[in-house]
Amino acid sequence: MATAIDAAHVTYEAPDLGVMEKFLTAFGMVKAEGSDDRTLYMRGTGTQHHIHVTRKADKQRFIGASIEVAGYDDLVELAAKPGSSPVRESTEPGGGHEVSMSMPDGIEIRAVWGRRKVEPIPDRDPFVMNNIRDKNRVNAAVRQSVAPCTIARLGHFVLHVKDHDASMAWLNERFDFLPSDYFVPPGEQGPIVGTFVRLDLGEQRVDHHFMLVLQSDWAGIHHSAFEVTDMDAVMSSHDYLLQQGYTSDVGVGRHLLGSQIFDYWKDPFGFRIEHYTDGDVVDHHHRPTKFNGTASETTQWGNRPPLEFFQ
């Protein structure tokens, strides 16, 4: 199986790249080198050349996600799987090589390797928090203006699929993901209808989840999620987006599974997109649990999603 090491980017189609660029800039991304009137590449402050791609098309559509793998040999192994493309040079900015695959529902998954890294964009340090016991911020104040936050990276994405088990079998045949937690129907102990997966990097700590695969009656993306500096970044950006006339979807709150402080929005074409911070990190010793509550019960505090949130 191929060793996945990072979420590289998500890819969409939309009829107006200017409208998408305006929103994503307000959301905290930066236009990346290689953008033109046919494709918009947006980056974060990290080293991935781009983390969000929008291709110009007549209608809006989610295409798929790209996953960075550890080496060229991983691409060779993936290319040998049924339905995979050959290993080929990437035509996207940053170069490198890739293998294109399609999940059972037609969602495109690309494995990429060798794409040029970019210089990080300088960002402020996270604010140090004082709690009732530990007073770590001394002779210093928090000063955060209402402004776009800075997006660091693509952290995870959530996919709706029509056959959870078939989709997980497809992923497990190709990548060395590990399960972090499971969804089962409310009040029941099975069957499993959703799986949070994470990267398997051994003793190295990784995010609680890299992807969530959800059983549904349709196939596509539920949301893509981007990590920001800290809670002040989430909250100040929330106010800024409201000032710019955008409508909040769900947030701010703290998740139960993964513990992230979250804030969901809809982009101008209806795709859900998330700011998050302060998520759990785990290593290969973590063992999954089962969650059998409703969508509203996935939030510990804050603005709770409606019962139909995952439908």
TrEMBL record:
Region of interest: Disordered: 82-101
SUPFAM superfamilies: Glyoxalase/Bleomycin resistance protein/Dihydroxybiphenyl dioxygenase
Protein name: VOC family protein
The organism's place on the tree of life at top rank: Bacteria
Pfam families in UniProt: Glyoxalase
PROSITE patterns recorded: VOC
Keyword annotations of the record: Metal-binding
InterPro entries associated with the record: Glyas_Bleomycin-R_OHBP_Dase, Glyas_Fos-R_dOase_dom, MMCE/EMCE_epimerase, VOC_core
Annotated ranges, domain VOC: 153-278
Protein's organism: Streptomyces cathayae
